[in-house]
Every structure is written in C-alpha cells, then in structure tokens.
C-alpha cells in the first residue's frame, strides 16, 4: 500500500510503499529523545515529494545512519542507511504518516544503545 507522510510543516514530504502492521520503538540516544516509531523499507520504496534541499541530515556515533529532519519544524520523518547485508534501507517514522492508525500497530522494543 502507498502512504503519504511529512514533517509537521510539510517542508519535507514523501510517499512510501509498504505494509505497516508493526513499529520499532528504539531506545538509542536519538530515538529516545525524538520519540520516533520506526518501520524499515527498501530505499526504493520511499520517494521524496518535496525538494531534497528541504532535508537536513544528522549523523552520530558510527555515522552510518543518515537521520533526516526538517530544519524548519524539527520533525524527523525518515532516515537512511544499510541493513547488515549492505542493502540500502529507509527507516520511516510511522508517526509522520497520518493515515496509519497507531493504535492498531504491534510495538516492538529494540535495544539500540549500541548503534
């Protein structure tokens, strides 16, 4: 299924294709602070619908995950990185997709403190 999502002000917007019945609640230093609820899809399943120039990026620790956010409103709708096999992935913040009913999702806790 295809979904539309964005940051709060709409300056960073995207379309993502996937089936989302669960989300990851990560406790790394970044996710813990921002309160994201993540789902991973192949990078080609996420397409920006706003200019790439609207996206700001932050990396930390090993600098392997690009945490993308809106410099205007501060919301982080997605990130990019690679899975253990080297496949490019997008981590979508399900809280940034209004059509997803968060109450119906299975929430899985992930210990990301070593990321």
UniProtKB/TrEMBL annotation:
ATP-binding found in the keyword field: no
InterPro entries per the UniProt record, alphabetical: CENP-V-like, CENP-V/GFA, Mss4-like_sf
Span of domain CENP-V/GFA: 3-115
Keywords (A to Z) from UniProt: Metal-binding, Zinc
Pfam families attached to this UniProt entry: GFA
Statement: the UniProt record of this protein carries the keyword Zinc: yes
PANTHER family for the chain: CENP-V_GFA DOMAIN-CONTAINING PROTEIN, CENTROMERE PROTEIN V
Family recorded in the similarity comment: Belongs to the Gfa family.
Protein name: GFA family protein
């Amino acid at each position: 299924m295809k979904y539309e999502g964005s940051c709060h002000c709409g300056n960073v917007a995207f379309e993502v294709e996937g089936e989302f019945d669960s989300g990851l609640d990560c406790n790394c230093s970044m996710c813990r602070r921002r309160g994201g609820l993540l789902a991973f899809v192949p990078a080609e399943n996420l397409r920006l619908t706003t200019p790439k120039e609207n996206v700001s990026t932050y990396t930390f620790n090993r600098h392997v995950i690009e945490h993308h956010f809106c410099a205007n409103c501060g919301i982080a709708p997605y990130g990019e990185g690679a899975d253990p096999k080297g496949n490019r992935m997008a981590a979508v913040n399900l809280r940034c997709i209004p059509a997803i009913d968060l109450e119906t999702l299975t929430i899985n806790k992930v210990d990301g403190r070593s990321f």
